[in-house]
Structure formats: structure tokens, C-alpha cells
Amino acid sequence: MSFDYEKSVWGKKEAGRGISDPSAFRLYQSKRVWGRLPAGARVLEVGCGAGQFIRAVKRARPDLECFACDVSSLALDVAKGLGGGVNYKLSDPDRLPFDKKEFDAVLVFDVLEHVSDAKILLKEINRVLKLGGLFYSYVPCEGDFLSVWKYLNVFSFFRRLTEKYAGHINRLSRRQWKKNIFSSGFILSSSRYSEHLFGQILNLVTFVALDNFARNHIGQQINNEYFFANLDKSRHATFLKFLKRAVNSAVYCESYALQLLPSPNWHMIWVKEISL
């Protein structure tokens, strides 16, 4: 079953900086790009969903010109309704709706693992980015030897849960991603990592719980945001919210302490070296 992005929306809640926010570490890492841009610089987020990250960037840096695009019209309708001073555009899967060399920086959070042909998207990012521009990407490398998903998929334990509930179809290793991005005209400037042990365990537990939850919601496409929203309405909501904050804080602290130590969850900063 293919994942339908017109049925599920991610990113309704703006990314926060507190360590209990599950998006905080990605926002923190991406700041190494947007935090050092001059006033008036143009920033694009590709695959923005409902604008979770780009709204946070605009809030922190109102002096930047912020743009975002997504293939889901449903997600963009939600994003536009939330405001935040961001210019949103609907994107074709194979063509970004922007001109050549239009942006000083491009941000991509949890997107490359979703697209059917990542090389096409990478070349499009190269096209819209200025020469010497910065490209930040976070990608879970599910085909990496450090990833628990690599072994679970090989041995058929909880097989393809990330594809079923999150649309992950690219299960590449760090080496494969590096080769693909390098061949798209970029040079690697910086690497950081996250979700080494606790984060991977939390990720696995979440998807197993999602799978069990989905069995009671036949006919619906379930994603993690829908799942957690339902937990927050349960009779144990107070305890579950406390537990979620505690676990997310532990994952953040682990990621912060070990960010220079390789893991399958890779935060990359690339510089556009050549135009293709």
C-alpha cells in the first residue's frame, strides 16, 4: 500500500526549543545554517508539511525571507491557516516551484527517505540554491548498519512499519546518501548525529504501538501525530504526557551528548559547489 500524503498531515505544532519537544534537536541542528545567515537572506524548506520547522525559523529570525513547499495541498492548507509569515507553494514531486539560484539556504527535515527518486529532488535543490549556498538535511538512514530497522527488515520482525505508517521508502546507508548528495553538486561541510540508543528504542516502540492502534482503526491512514493526539485524550493522558516529556528529554540529552558519535540519524550541512 502506498502512502497517501493527502490523508495525513505532519507538523501542525510549531517546533519548540525545549528539550521535551521531539522536534527540538532537529531545530537546534538546523540553526547552524539559518542562525548564521545575514538579514534579508532567503530560506526555503522543502517538504514542509504544515510548516512545523519553517514557522519556528521565521519566529526566531523574522529578518529572513522564509519560503516552503510541499506536495500535499492538504498540508499546505493547514500551514497557511496557521500563519507565521511564511510564503507557501504547492510543489510537483519532480520540480520545485522556484527559479534558479533563488535561495541562500535550503532546509530538509525527514523528507529524503520519502521520495521515489531522491536524486531528482537533490538536483532540484541544487538548481534553486545559490552557488556557495547552504543545504541542511536530516535523514534517518534505515539501511545503515547502525540502524535497528536494517536488521528488523532483514529478519522480518516488524517489517516495513516505517513505510506503512510514515511513508519511508528509501532505506539507504550513510555512505549511500553521501554518494548521492555529493554527486548532486554538494560538498559536505558538517555532520552531527542523534537518537543513538534511546531514540531508536523510542522510535521502534512508537511504530509497534502505532501498528497495534491501527488494527482498531481499519480503513484509516494513521501516522504518529494522529496516534499521540488520541493518547492525549485518553483517561491516562496526564501520566502519558509526563512520560512522553520525560522520554523525549532523555533522547534529547543523549543526542546532545553524543552528537559527534555516528548514528543512523544524520544531520548534514552541505555547501553547493557546482551548478548542474
Please sum up the structure shown.
The chain is an alpha/beta fold and 276 residues long. The protein has helices at 24-34, 52-60, 73-82, 118-128, 148-154, 161-166, 174-182, 198-214, 224-231, 237-257; strands spanning 42-46, 65-70, 87-90, 103-109, 129-140, 186-194, 265-272. It is built from 10 helices and 7 strands.
Could you give the topology of this structure?
Layout: H1 24-34, E1 42-46, H2 52-60, E2 65-70, H3 73-82, E3 87-90, E4 103-109, H4 118-128, E5 129-140, H5 148-154, H6 161-166, H7 174-182, E6 186-194, H8 198-214, H9 224-231, H10 237-257, E7 265-272
Parallel strand pairs: 1-2, 1-4, 2-3, 4-5
Antiparallel strand pairs: 5-7, 6-7
Notes on the protein architecture:
GO terms for molecular function: S-adenosylmethionine-dependent methyltransferase activity. This is Methyltransferase type 11 domain-containing protein. Pfam families: Methyltransf_11. Residues 44-136 form the Methyltransferase type domain. InterPro entries: Methyltransf_11, SAM-dependent_MTases_sf. There is one protein chain. This protein is of the alpha/beta class. The protein has a single domain, classed as Vaccinia Virus protein VP39 (Rossmann fold, 3-Layer(aba) Sandwich). 39% of the residues lie in helices and 18% in strands. The protein has a 7-stranded mixed beta sheet with strand order 3-2-1-4-5-7-6, with helices on both faces. The two termini are 35 Å apart. The mean pLDDT is 92.
